[in-house]
Amino acid sequence: MDKSQKIILSSIISISAITWYFSIEQPDMMEAMMTLNPLAVTIFAISWTIGMAAMMFPAIIPMVLLYNRLISTSQEDVNKNDNFSLYNIFNDNVSNRGKKSDNKDFQNPIISTRIIKTSGFVGTYLLVWALTGVMLLVFWSIIMNNLLVGYSAQDFAIVFGILLIISGVYQFSSLKKRCLGYCESPLAFFMKRWRGNQLKDGLKMGLFHGMYCLGCCWPYFLLMIALGWMNILWMVIFAAIIFAEKVWSKGIWIARVAGFVFVIIGLLSITGIISISTEDGMNDSQNGMNNMMMEGSNLDKDTNGMNMNDKMDMNMQMP
């Protein structure tokens, strides 16, 4: 591992540790969900992105380090489907591993360039997750504010159970297996999506990696928002599952076990046998909506009262 890779690795670990610390105290997303206020949504997006960095960065370390290695010796653009050239780049890195260049003046600019390109790769990957969080928030906000208004706790339990079953069934799908295959095998991903050695190429590959990762892990984050599991405990549990899926070569079995658990819990929730803390989440949502409605009513009353007082004062002042 050369100097550039050591910097990248230490940076990812440090950022992940720092974001875990900030994720312990997250702002309440109720206002963002109920009103879609731009400021509240922005705060949620920042908090969500911090949480994504905390949860996903440990799992993408092998992918980021391989990308950094591939661009270390490739000084020219690699054709879009030039697998032979990509094999050569990879093999050159393996054969030259541990060797140091005598020309330090030449090595330092290369290291800084690789860090910039790698940062761009990670940045666009994180952008995919930031946009996903906002879309999930808007999606669930529409459901909560329009489709589920006035429904009972059992109705909420049925909806949450359906979401769990859908998420669980997806864990057995071919799309899940394909996306996970590219996530757990960095070399297979770059053989499929290698675009070249330029910064713009790294940005494109970061987007592709984010999309594959989204296709692999979206059920966990849908449940984290829909079921009110945006807390540190569930973040740790889902982060551990994601890490095991991506790092272990048999990670698909972990995904299927998680999917089986989701389906069972979903069925039990629909039948009313168990409660998955949906009642609390539902009560919080209903209380939030009720409070906002009460505040609006009080505001209207205050406004009407002020108007009446103003009229009375005007009448009293008239000769």
The low-confidence runs, each spanning 5 or more residues with pLDDT under 50, are 75-84, 93-106, 278-301, 305-319
How big is the Rg?
Answer: 25 Å
Summarize model confidence as the mean pLDDT.
76
Helices, by number, come to 13
Q: Percent range for helical residues? A: over 70%
How large is the share of residues in beta strands? Answer: under 5%
Distance between the termini: 92 Å
The tally of domains stands at 1
Number of strand segments: 0
**Structural class estimated from helices and strands:** mainly alpha
Query: In this structure, how is the largest beta sheet organized?
Result: none
Shape: globular
Description:
The chain is an all-alpha fold and 319 residues long. The protein has one domain. Helix content is 81%, strand content 0%. α1 crosses α3, α3 crosses α11 and α7 crosses α13.
Short description, anyone?
The protein has 319 residues and is an all-alpha fold. It is 81% helix and 0% strand.
Key words describing this protein structure:
319 residues; mainly alpha; 13 helices; disordered C terminus
List the helices and strands and how they pair.
Elements: H1 3-23, H2 30-35, H3 38-56, H4 61-73, H5 83-95, H6 104-147, H7 153-170, H8 174-184, H9 186-193, H10 199-226, H11 232-247, H12 251-270, H13 278-317
